[in-house]
Amino acid sequence: MNNVLKEDFSNILQNKFSWKKLKNSSILITGASGYLANYLIKFLLYLNEKEDLNIKIVGTTRDIKRTKEKFKSHLKNKKLAFFQTNLLSNINIKEKVDYIIHMASLASPKFYESQPVDVMEPNITGTINLLNFSKKKKVKKFLFISTSGVYGFVDDHKRPNNESTFGYLDNTLPESIYLESKRMAETICIAYKNQYKIPISIIRPSISYGPGITLNDGRSFADFINNIIKNQNIKLFSKGNVMRNFCYISDVVSGILLILIKGKNGESYNLASKKETSIKMLANFLVKEVFPERKLKVIVSKIKKKLLRAEFKRTLVCCNKVKKLGWVERISLKDGFRRTVEWYEK
Hints:
By secondary structure, the chain is α/β, with parallel strands linked by helices. It has helices at about 5-15, 35-50, 65-70, 115-135, 175-195, 220-230, 250-260, 280-290, 320-325, 335-345; strands at about 25-30, 55-60, 80-85, 100, 140-145, 200-205, 205-210, 235, 245, 245-250, 265-270, 275-280, 300.
């Protein structure tokens, strides 16, 4: 295992969560080849090894070959199984399932205009099919991974907003496709909780980054990581004034597992860094403070690159609710981006 992941996983384990609650359980994770699910699954295998929990991990994927390639060093582990599954059809997995973490989603803005239906379906139809499957399996918890973007355009004076502060979204715009489908999925989850008594918790993470993130999905911070790995100057394709919250993947995964273990039925939880930074500030921070030895520069391009997405000026949310459960943000912005680049280079 890569040293960055070893250190990350050790950091997560420092959280004194009630890991024993997961002992001898089976956890189904959708979207197993995605960067966040990939990391979570590998941590659970590590957790099994360190805490002797005997957790069975069941991963669903659209592309079994691609997924097995990503997990090639773990395929002999009897506590890991993958199933090629179309979430848009009835789900027919015979394995025992105690918990479901629904992470499968087509989140990249580059698909919002060209494949809007494909973006929406995993969040809506996929969620309905998984909830029907949950009903059949009598799961202990269904955890839906949403996004902090569901809050829409919130007035600055209301930020950092809590889990009940919502703004507007124009549902007729292509850039609202992903966010509106996540909103709908949350409503579906609560409907199933109320009608069929399925235990539900919802997580609304902000931007996460770390080992395994897709570097070509068009998002600025992913471009920056790619530039640094290639020892290229960072290019800004906009003024870079929008403010964002970047949460390192180990902190996100620790939050997901804490909410799986302790999250209240029917409740939603924000999961984000308390540090707010603009895209321009991030670019300069990476060049001057995180990787000064590379002697890179930030260049403002005359070419403007516009991705189809909701252009929120700020995304700051309040995380007091998850902190009351025991969540702690451990990794700083500097350490997180350094660790991400180190993982790619090794």
